[in-house]
Amino acid sequence: MPRPTFTTARLRLRPLEPRDAKALIEPGNAASRGLVEKLGFAAEGLLRDRLCVEGKYRSVLIYALLAEDWHARHPKPKSARAARAKR
User: Fold this and answer.
1) Which site from 2, 12, 33, 48 is most exposed, i.e. has the minimal number of CB atoms within 10 Å?
2) Element (H, E) at 6
3) Residue 37 DSSP symbol
4) What per-residue string of b and e applies to 23-40 under the rule 16 or more CB within 10 Å gives b?
5) The domain that contains 74 carries what CATH number?
């Protein structure tokens, strides 16, 4: 039984600053692309021959998610205490 490797599912999330995150995904990896798009990441472009895996260069798509975009899609829930104070 072949064991899964991260070379075929090259998803790398790396926080750059407190205000954004990046994902580098191989173009043929539809599952990872769908996941980051569902999370709110936006495609920014293609980085040609960015990765060298086993002596072969591979291109990757770069996705970005800004903190303000994340918070717009996932607002913090109001606490019960704050809700009662408004009454």
Assistant:
1) 2
2) none
3) H
4) bbbbeebeebbeebeeee
5) 3.40.630.30
pTM above 0.85, yes or no: no
Of 63, 68, 69, the closest CA to residue 11 belongs to: 63
**Tokens read off for 14:** 């790396």
- Does residue 50 lie in a domain region? yes
* Domain span at 27: 12-86
The 10s digit of each residue's pLDDT in 68-77 is: 888 888 887 7
DSSP 54: T
Type of residue numbered 65: L
| Residue 20: inside a domain | yes
Total domain count, the chain:
1
